[in-house]
């Protein structure tokens, strides 16, 4: 009994000390600021130095919270209970959030730096007139591969190359129903937003015929595998491909010509916002050319910020793999919000494909 | 005490090597200047420097430890008392149904627990943050405590209790003098396993947290998309070393006092 | 008499059951009866009996069984030998400590360790064995799962063995029982509660494993846990996700009924 009491006291004392320590640390960061905003973003998706700089310039303290999937983020915003002033959803999620009335319209007069954004990336179908969103980063879906480990004729300019018999047991796919089903549809020359059972059936059968080539369907873990030359070919997002190529210079990235996905992550102000002015100030700050260029350097994804691009290494922005020309972009499609029913179907077909792997 | 045979030593050795292999792997790469967990380039301490420069990460680390310790403690108290209560239920069917209820949270995937707790908290109107996370961690740790304490209670010789009662011990005395000391290993096991559950949890915490409160797990999982930084490895390394030091230190301090005590008694 | 004594301390536990077990179950059952538009339906239940989910159920049980079996095979001797060491409680702590390091990080480490250029293949190569991809196989999946559950299995068994009266073992040996008989007739029966507890805390969560099915098994193994996660987080079909969860809970209750204590108990 004595040791139980001792242990209890030890735990309580430790917790009290830790509470004190945490309080001291937090107090150190908040000195002289009453104003705060809460930014809800993907992990490692912003240069932390910029957050400090923002606080220094505006006196607004930033609470930074992170999420790991669009859907989980939406659930949190929908349920409320926490004051998120800024969130960074992908484009299809913007549409869903709009439908659920979870977004607050932006006041463009408070975001003068919007002029820095390349007009090509404004006024897109998922948000006409940028009523709710400001683009943050964008990219494509394509194939990252290791030219030193595949046959020379495989350039992945066509999805067809994935079916090449020399790739048996070598292809990795990303674990996303939209991405994989979209790839199946694209490889048939169809739209990746198809709402047609016959087409989806065909796409699934086409994917099942790819099974012998598939090594695994995984998530973000593909990055270390590609870097380490463990994996040869992988379907993934351009942003991640850029991360991989940064570490492993052998790698190459291609967006097949039949078409693929063009994605956007955008700033929005969710209806949970408590400091709407602060949120606008933050968005405006992040759009500043210098800031955006610095952030780009840190994150490594493609930026829609034209003013920032002028400040960046020309080698980066001239890389057609990550900054495809407008002509190439024409072939890419943005995910439309399919509605839950079709989303469910995509998911069922994708599941069927996954279960065919054994 | 019998000495372990060489075969037994080898067996235990292998088990420990496997248990620690991934941890040493993580710590090894925390010294990598290359920035990823592949291709060790050269030795650096910069990731450790980063940990101490990042006060946000430090606060998150401290929060994580506080939540683990407090939720473990409270779950252990509730779970132990619950287990004692379950054993006292004589009806076999009744007892098995309580145990089934007990295990619901163990079998439910984290997303389900997280989503339903979130709905629960917002329905009641609890502000999301420290409290909601703490309560959730207590909630999902209780069943593991019960399962750890239960076998000790079941194997306990009931004549001990009878004897104590015959000698005039009150119910409270039976509990504190007979039952608790006997099931103590189970209680500690429950506490440690509760800590494991708490430290490992990502999904439940993610759903029920808010207002700037975060734990290390949430932070690490949300880094996955853009790549986990070696700062996280460094922080794990620090936590690991600190834990080992505390455990070994605590063990030898308490054992020395035990030796002194018995010495005095003799 | 004992019954009355237990009511007071049991109170917080009952509150917990009501708030955090029964209320969520009711929520989950409620959601399982809703379709995508929020109308009442039994379609989700009908859907569960489609071949895909039945296959998944079998897969989940099969892998949970294998994981539990291997965990037990590794954990029992470990627990037994640990009780024989000096400083046994310290060694036990060293079994627990690894489980306090974040699982995702450890999984990433395993990806590195099992990799083509990882330490295991390098080791094998030194014996002239060609490097092979260990990741994304049944072996790697079960290995990592066993790794996760080992402390949960060792602890209850250790606790059961620890208090085992050595005189019983000596007595059995004196009466001419050999090692195996002693183990089978004396040691094992006395530790059965610990083993049962270990099996429960391994098998039940193993049914709903998800993360490592993707990271380590590359989605070659699809369990009910994976399906639930997908339904909630990708398809956003809480109805179907909840339905699968209801079945998981039902399966668990069935397991509890079959493995429930037949022994007397009922004192304290």
From TrEMBL, chain A:
<keyword id="KW-0574">Periplasm</keyword>
<keyword id="KW-0813">Transport</keyword>
<dbReference type="Pfam" id="PF13416">
    <property type="entry name" value="SBP_bac_8"/>
</dbReference>
<feature type="binding site">
    <location>
        <position position="44"/>
    </location>
    <ligand>
        <name>spermidine</name>
    </ligand>
</feature>
<keyword id="KW-0732">Signal</keyword>
<protein>
    <submittedName>
        <fullName>Spermidine/putrescine ABC transporter substrate-binding protein</fullName>
    </submittedName>
</protein>
<dbReference type="GO" id="GO:0015846">
    <property type="term" value="P:polyamine transport"/>
</dbReference>
<dbReference type="InterPro" id="IPR006059">
    <property type="entry name" value="SBP"/>
</dbReference>
<feature type="binding site">
    <location>
        <position position="92"/>
    </location>
    <ligand>
        <name>spermidine</name>
    </ligand>
</feature>
<dbReference type="GO" id="GO:0042597">
    <property type="term" value="C:periplasmic space"/>
</dbReference>
<dbReference type="InterPro" id="IPR001188">
    <property type="entry name" value="Sperm_putr-bd"/>
</dbReference>
<feature type="signal peptide">
    <location>
        <begin position="1"/>
        <end position="27"/>
    </location>
</feature>
<dbReference type="GO" id="GO:0019808">
    <property type="term" value="F:polyamine binding"/>
</dbReference>
UniProtKB/TrEMBL annotation, chain B:
<keyword id="KW-0813">Transport</keyword>
<dbReference type="Pfam" id="PF00528">
    <property type="entry name" value="BPD_transp_1"/>
</dbReference>
<feature type="transmembrane region" description="Helical">
    <location>
        <begin position="57"/>
        <end position="89"/>
    </location>
</feature>
<dbReference type="InterPro" id="IPR000515">
    <property type="entry name" value="MetI-like"/>
</dbReference>
<dbReference type="InterPro" id="IPR051789">
    <property type="entry name" value="Bact_Polyamine_Transport"/>
</dbReference>
<keyword id="KW-0812">Transmembrane</keyword>
<comment type="similarity">
    <text>Belongs to the binding-protein-dependent transport system permease family. CysTW subfamily.</text>
</comment>
<dbReference type="InterPro" id="IPR035906">
    <property type="entry name" value="MetI-like_sf"/>
</dbReference>
<feature type="transmembrane region" description="Helical">
    <location>
        <begin position="228"/>
        <end position="253"/>
    </location>
</feature>
<dbReference type="GO" id="GO:0005886">
    <property type="term" value="C:plasma membrane"/>
</dbReference>
<keyword id="KW-1003">Cell membrane</keyword>
<feature type="transmembrane region" description="Helical">
    <location>
        <begin position="12"/>
        <end position="31"/>
    </location>
</feature>
<protein>
    <submittedName>
        <fullName>Spermidine/purescine ABC transporter permease</fullName>
    </submittedName>
</protein>
<feature type="transmembrane region" description="Helical">
    <location>
        <begin position="130"/>
        <end position="150"/>
    </location>
</feature>
<dbReference type="GO" id="GO:0055085">
    <property type="term" value="P:transmembrane transport"/>
</dbReference>
UniProtKB/TrEMBL annotation, chain C:
<dbReference type="InterPro" id="IPR000515">
    <property type="entry name" value="MetI-like"/>
</dbReference>
<feature type="transmembrane region" description="Helical">
    <location>
        <begin position="134"/>
        <end position="158"/>
    </location>
</feature>
<feature type="transmembrane region" description="Helical">
    <location>
        <begin position="12"/>
        <end position="33"/>
    </location>
</feature>
<dbReference type="Pfam" id="PF00528">
    <property type="entry name" value="BPD_transp_1"/>
</dbReference>
<keyword id="KW-0813">Transport</keyword>
<keyword id="KW-1003">Cell membrane</keyword>
<dbReference type="GO" id="GO:0005886">
    <property type="term" value="C:plasma membrane"/>
</dbReference>
<feature type="transmembrane region" description="Helical">
    <location>
        <begin position="61"/>
        <end position="83"/>
    </location>
</feature>
<protein>
    <submittedName>
        <fullName>Spermidine/putrescine ABC transporter permease</fullName>
    </submittedName>
</protein>
<feature type="transmembrane region" description="Helical">
    <location>
        <begin position="90"/>
        <end position="114"/>
    </location>
</feature>
<keyword id="KW-1133">Transmembrane helix</keyword>
<keyword id="KW-0812">Transmembrane</keyword>
<dbReference type="GO" id="GO:0055085">
    <property type="term" value="P:transmembrane transport"/>
</dbReference>
<feature type="domain" description="ABC transmembrane type-1">
    <location>
        <begin position="57"/>
        <end position="259"/>
    </location>
</feature>
<feature type="transmembrane region" description="Helical">
    <location>
        <begin position="198"/>
        <end position="217"/>
    </location>
</feature>
